[in-house]
Amino acid sequence: MNDGSFGAGVGTLSAEPMQRVGLGTDAPLAAAPAPDSVGPRERTRSVGWGGAGPGTLQARQVSCWFGTHKVIERATLDMAPGRVTALIGPSGCGKSTFLRTLNRMHELTRGATSGGEVLLDGRDVYGADLRVTEVRLRIGMVFQRPNPFPNMTIAQNVLSGLRLAGLKTPNKAEVVEDCLTRAGLWREARNRLNAPAGSLSGGQQQRLCLARSLAVRPQVLLMDEPCSALDPTSTRVIEATIRELCDEVTIVIVTHNMQQAQRVADDTALFLIDGEGAPGRIVESGPTNDVFSTPRDPRTADYISGRFG
Length: 309
Description:
By secondary structure, the chain is of the alpha/beta class. The protein has a domain at 52-148 and 218-304: Rossmann fold (3-Layer(aba) Sandwich), CATH 3.40.50.300. The chain is built from 10 helices and 10 strands. Helix 4 (172-182) crosses helix 6. The protein is globular and about 50 Å long.
């Protein structure tokens, strides 16, 4: 592998996050100034808190708004380290918004605000002493549709997150092989690392995005319907990869597929709304087997049996 061929640069991203709402407050606040806009080579990764390995993620009374419209009402959920937590529920009940709140992606939307606390290993990720870039290094995200950088090679895509974060990479070849292996893509891509990322199939591109997220060694990985645009074969590969990864990273996945939740998730939380225009709420959460076999709330039984949603 030609190590020098990995050196394409990537631009920085900027956005105007919105100010948080305090716990118990029931109205969103105005936009706040954007936090740090650190360039890709201006700093190296700090040791931070928690160290390596899966993190404990806790949401405490989290509410979210878009403008004045409340979309999530006081969601509380523990996402245990080294486990897969599935977020299920009908469309429009706030699952993806809740997921984006966990690593401060929600605030990238103009007019978006949130309240409550999100704790990673006991530390509030919205705390004033934490950089948003540090939070997103610790809590990575894979989106619904594959989004590799089309003008980069496969290898450059894997390394792009490291470059954006200003993290030094002594052995690029080793990082590329390790991350592609962990994402279940090494065997298929090892002889074409300098090929454009767009030459991969949709399922392969999604695994490439997963490898890119893993390169920065997150403690938590958020996945927003990662298989919804994939064929059944690619879905099986992604699901197998999720199960293999859960020993080293905490995973939270949004899915509309009840069978997928039962296959991959250790724990499940069901979001529902009480009526049109009402905010989403977590109505039940717990071990996946319990939620699906002996639900406590009759609405859970109705949803997972297909009587609505």
